[in-house]
Amino acid sequence: MPPDANPAWNEVFFFPLRLPPICDEIQLAILSGTKVLGTATLRLSQISSAGAELEEGTPGFLPCFGPSFLPFYGPRPHPARTSSTDPGVAYRGRVLLELSTHMGPPNGRQKGTIAPEDIARVQRHLPRRRFGLCGVFYSATMVPSGPELLRLELSHGNYGDRSDATCKPAPSVTPHGCPLFDGNHYHYLPWYGDKPVAAVTSSWEDAGHRWDILNLLRATCRRLVSTHG
């Protein structure tokens, strides 16, 4: 894809999978040439079920996922801003992905295009909403020693990441502080009565309909357990 902050492939890939599989993970990677920008993992044990051997014959289900956004993480794009020995891990993007499993061979198909009506069906369920994330830092102990000033950063995806210029700046970092020796083995940041606060405002797709269903199922499960326990 040419340089684009929001590329859209709208492609479908077919690959064989033998069940039950030997490996439990499906690994995905975002590549720029031969360079790996970020990776993500789907565990078959979390997106499928073999069913239960009960008298009622409880059925299982084949691997399925989405359509939903899958976040990708990888090395920070500017490791020199953190540490030369530990570049850290950063959010590198997300992919709107759907995985479905069908019985039978793929009949030689390896790649295809997604139908326009399927693309429109997914886009209708992606309204955006603004979300706020606020963090209060009460203490920072057992921090590494050294002459460098330290600060903590609160981020949600690319939002709040000071090394990412694609999002608007936000008060997402604590003030710089010099670690002090605690008189024993470790160092700490002298916040005392002034606790730093960081906040991030972000815009994401509204997945409230999924949260509502999940919360309803969890509440029903807890009530059944407490009733029959």
From TrEMBL:
It is found in: Membrane. Keywords: Membrane, Repeat, Transmembrane, Transmembrane helix. GO terms for biological process: membrane fusion; plasma membrane organization. The keyword Transmembrane helix applies. SUPFAM superfamilies: C2 domain (Calcium/lipid-binding domain, CaLB). The keyword Repeat applies. One of its GO terms (cellular component) is membrane. Signal peptide: none annotated. Its main location: membrane. This is MYOF protein.
